[in-house]
């Protein structure tokens, strides 16, 4: 624990307790009554400035109570801290909202309410996020009985809820219910999705229009929710790996890497240098693969079909390389706990070098055919601006954050693999508009190629898998690891009780912060701009729904 943080917190919150275990994320436990004041102190104190809420995890600690763990980071000083709070009231659990401090908490708190039933007082929109409003129970509670939810409700037409219940506190400290309306009768509301091709998946936006201008936007998630975090509670650690590929499927290699890092941290396992090199190269190939798909689909969204075909043509070459080593083209199942499933193919090094030599001139062709096109520039420049402060508050990591000037690359902030041994530029733009988000990803393709070139001829000899017993359990404790996926910080939180199955697994979605800022980005823009804004945010819906 940083002594500065501990001294400030202890002086202002004497009842706060600190975990004795030395971890990367020191933990402070506070009562719900102190949570909001502590959050304000941690963000507002000039010596701390915890402005980035990395992850918000709902928890059911059984008889101990229901609660939340907040993972925080100071983008100014690099401090890391976790806050732990809980309520013993299981019938009517309540915690104060922190959505007025960190904007990303708004949807994350709705997720916690959805799964655990914890209401956040003073939250502006306390509804379920993923499940139907008439769903029975809260699935991530340990005492949840899914058999009681088998009822005709699932077969009825979808319910549209236009009223929002918030919970305020009167002058005596007593909570009371207050209801307001999302959309009034005079508003003209249209649906974009869940089957609209420009939403890039089954995601639905309810958009209030005045003429062709957007007044406000409400996101509706959950159409492909699969309960992956609940499934993790009944699967062994190696079995969970198969689920990580199916979150953001365009970051499958990186997601799996993050989970392996988290379990390896718990086990105290150090993989070989060869594995670190291979994992890093594979992650960058995955990033190029994802960014080429981003380029292609954005071009299609904006009407440039020739560029769409160019991007897909070149992406196929990466998939051929990955398939030769892993056997997969979308879902790879390559990283394993303690290593990789098999050594790289004998042709791997040559094919990767040939591909990089091929792609460089093709990127120049992309810029000639699309980036410099006057229509493309008019559709993107100055549209959908996101300030640096809002990017941090919403937690929009990855290319979206860097397009707003936020240096948020996990590879730089908390290096893993062999990223601390390679020289690459963290691509930053300041404009925060659609064009900047597009250019960040195009420039990152070049940086990924530079990283691969520095490593591809220097892969050391060694084992591809640590010789170890099958992973049956990891020591009791709380573990968090993150990687820089194709869309930003992908985090994995594991709480273990030392048993065969994890007590809790939480995946930090890269896409949920991206859709949470859509209302801010689209207000006052034209309905046609919604397509460009959504395309340049580059979210993947299965990663949002999980």
Number of alpha- plus pi-helical segments? 18
Radius of gyration (CA) equals 23 Å
Intertermini distance: 33 Å
Tell me how many strands there are.
17
- The oligomeric state is single chain
Strand content: 15-25%
Low-pLDDT parts are 149-160
Side by side, the strands of the main sheet go: 1-2-5-4-3
Mean pLDDT value: 89
Helices and strands in order:
Layout (H helix, E strand, L loop, with lengths): L2 H10 L4 E2 L8 E3 L2 H13 L7 E9 L5 E8 L6 E8 L6 E3 L8 H12 L2 E3 L41 E7 L5 E7 L6 E5 L11 E7 L2 E8 L7 H5 L4 H8 L7 H16 L5 H29 L3 H22 L8 E2 L2 E2 L7 H24 L2 H7 L7 H7 L4 H5 L6 H4 L20 H22 L21 E9 L2 E9 L7 E5 L3 H5 L1 H5 L6 H9 L3 H5 L1
Could you walk me through the main structural features you see in this protein, from its secondary elements to its overall organization?
This protein has 546 residues and is of the alpha+beta class. 38% of the residues lie in helices and 18% in strands. It has a 5-stranded mixed β-sheet. A hairpin with a 2-residue loop joins strand 11 and strand 12. Helix 7 (273-301) runs antiparallel to helix 8 and helix 7 (273-301) packs antiparallel against helix 14. The chain is globular.
């Amino acid at each position: 624990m940083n002594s500065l943080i501990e001294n400030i917190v202890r002086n202002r919150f004497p009842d706060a307790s600190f975990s004795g275990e030395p971890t990367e994320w020191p933990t402070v436990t506070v009562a719900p009554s102190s949570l909001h004041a502590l959050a304000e102190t941690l963000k507002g104190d000039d010596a701390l400035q915890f402005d980035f809420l990395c992850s918000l995890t709902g928890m059911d600690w059984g008889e101990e109570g229901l609660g939340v763990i907040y993972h925080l980071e100071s983008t100014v000083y690099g401090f890391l801290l976790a806050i732990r709070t809980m309520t013993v009231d299981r019938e009517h659990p309540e915690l104060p909202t922190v959505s007025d401090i960190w904007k990303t908490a708004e949807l994350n708190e709705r997720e916690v309410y959805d799964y655990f039933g914890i209401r956040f007082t003073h939250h502006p929109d306390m509804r379920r996020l993923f499940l139907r409003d008439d769903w029975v129970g809260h699935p991530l509670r340990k005492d949840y009985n899914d058999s009681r939810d088998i009822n005709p409700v699932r077969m009825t037409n979808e319910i549209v809820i236009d009223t929002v219940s918030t919970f305020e506190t009167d002058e005596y400290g007593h909570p009371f219910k207050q209801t307001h309306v999302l959309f009034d009768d005079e508003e003209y509301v249209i649906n974009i999705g869940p089957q609209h091709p420009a939403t890039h998946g089954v995601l639905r936006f309810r958009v209030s229009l005045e003429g062709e201008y957007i007044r406000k936007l409400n996101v509706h998630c959950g159409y492909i929710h699969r309960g992956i975090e609940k499934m993790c509670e009944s699967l062994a650690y190696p079995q969970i790996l198969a689920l990580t590929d199916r979150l953001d499927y365009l970051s499958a290699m990186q997601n799996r890497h993050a989970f392996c890092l988290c379990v390896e941290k718990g086990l105290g396992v150090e993989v070989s240098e060869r594995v670190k090199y291979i994992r890093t190269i594979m992650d960058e190939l995955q990033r190029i693969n994802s960014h080429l798909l981003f380029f292609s689909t954005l071009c299609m969204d904006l009407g440039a079909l020739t560029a769409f075909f160019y991007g897909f043509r070149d992406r196929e070459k990466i998939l051929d390389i990955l398939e030769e080593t892993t056997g997969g083209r979308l879902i790879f199942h390559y990283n394993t706990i303690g290593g990789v499933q098999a050594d790289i193919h004998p042709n791997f090094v040559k094919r990767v070098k040939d591909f990089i030599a091929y792609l460089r001139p093709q990127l120049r062709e992309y810029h000639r055919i699309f980036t410099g096109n006057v229509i493309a520039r008019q559709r993107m420049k100055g549209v959908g601006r996101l300030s640096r402060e809002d990017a941090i508050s919403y937690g929009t990591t990855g290319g979206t954050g860097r397009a707003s000037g936020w240096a948020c690359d996990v590879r730089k902030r908390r290096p893993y693999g062999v990223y601390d041994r390679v020289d690459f530029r963290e691509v930053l733009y300041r404009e925060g508009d659609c064009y900047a988000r597009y250019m960040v990803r195009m420039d990152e393709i070049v940086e990924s190629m530079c990283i691969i070139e520095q490593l591809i001829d220097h892969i050391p000899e060694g084992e591809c898998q640590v010789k170890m017993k099958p992973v049956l359990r990891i020591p009791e404790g709380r573990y968090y690891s993150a990687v820089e996926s194709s869309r930003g910080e992908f985090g994995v939180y594991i709480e273990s009780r030392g048993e065969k199955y994890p007590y809790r697994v939480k995946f930090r979605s890269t896409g949920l912060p991206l859709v949470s800022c859509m209302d801010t980005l689209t207000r006052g823009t034209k309905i046609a701009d919604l397509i460009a804004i959504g395309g340049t945010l580059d979210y993947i819906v299965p990663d949002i729904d999980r």
